[in-house]
Design a protein that fits this description.
Layout (H helix, E strand, L loop, with lengths): L3 E5 H15 L4 H22 L8 H10 L4 E6 L2 E8 L2 E6 L2 E2 L2 H12 L3 H13 L3 H15 L13 E5 H8 L1
Antiparallel strand pairs: 1-6, 2-3, 3-4, 4-5
Helix pairs in contact: 1-2, 1-5, 1-6, 2-4, 5-7
């Protein structure tokens, strides 16, 4: 059983957001794409705050919104507004204006967590189940902040690995 592992925050947030999305009623494949979108939005926001990215001007964002098809919706998850679209396979988060591929998200998580994926996912599922869906929806990001890997502040922490302690996740589950 995995106790700790050295990992970047992005895959941890991706997996946690997917687990939370499932607890909130989305199916597994929908949740995977929503999880990756949350991590991407979070990384972009952090990059902007560090001066690594420049956000698009407001006029461009407004025009872009008008170009989306009417079936596009926004899913609120872990304090992020995730654009999503209904496809014949189900709801999918948008990545670069296209529905994300849940199989690609699975491969990403497997490559980042390796053999520890099952243990980490089990601990996260226990934490998610320890709260009602309504309570989890409000607390999910705060819970993530309590167990996410610790990395240096500022640009030194960008992309850095930190320790993910599964005991902390299990303790939060009670």
């Amino acid at each position: 059983m995995t106790k700790t592992l050295s990992i970047n925050r992005a895959p941890v947030l991706t997996l946690w957001a997917a687990v939370v999305a499932e607890r909130l009623g989305f199916d597994h494949e929908e949740a995977l794409t929503l999880g990756r979108a949350v991590a991407g939005l979070n990384a972009y926001s952090k990059g902007v705050s560090l001066g690594l990215f420049t956000p698009a001007p407001k006029e461009v964002r407004e025009k872009k919104k008008k170009l989306r098809p009417k079936e596009t919706i926004t899913v609120d998850l872990l304090q992020r507004a995730v654009p999503a679209v209904h496809t014949k396979e189900g709801l999918r988060a948008l990545s670069k204006d296209k529905p994300d591929d849940p199989k690609a998200v699975e491969r990403y998580l497997e490559s980042k967590f390796g053999d520890a994926l099952k243990d980490v996912e089990t601990a996260m599922r226990q934490l998610a189940k320890s709260r009602s869906p309504a309570k989890l929806a409000g607390e999910a990001y705060h819970l993530y902040e309590q167990f996410r890997p610790s990395v240096p502040t500022g640009t030194r922490g960008w992309g850095a690995k930190g320790a993910l302690d599964l005991a902390t996740i299990r303790k939060l589950a009670g």
